Amino acid sequence: MSSKAPVSETFGRIKVEVNFATGSCAITHPAQGLIGEVAKTFTLRTIEEIRGAYEVHTRFSKQPKKHPHSADMAAALKFAGMHLATSQGGKR
Q1: What is the mean pLDDT, run by run of 10 residues, along the chain of 92 residues?
Q2: Which candidate, 26, 34, 49, 58, has a CA 20 to 30 Å from the CA of 20?
């Protein structure tokens, strides 16, 4: 694990924070709540989880009317995966 400080980036309305100490990333995205839109956050704890989510959101991004934030989510996941892989020495 690395002692680098966490990095964050925003892609459209998606915010990703990469934590090098834990090897995870937290993604905050807009979601529909009971009354209106709310921000939801979820954490992916391994590079494998990030890769799987990236593949799903890349497929979803081909239907932008149905999944309007998927292209931004895929970009955020790619950012997180590349940073974590680099910090871990390209470990797969």
Answers
A1: 81 96 94 91 95 96 93 96 85 52
A2: 58
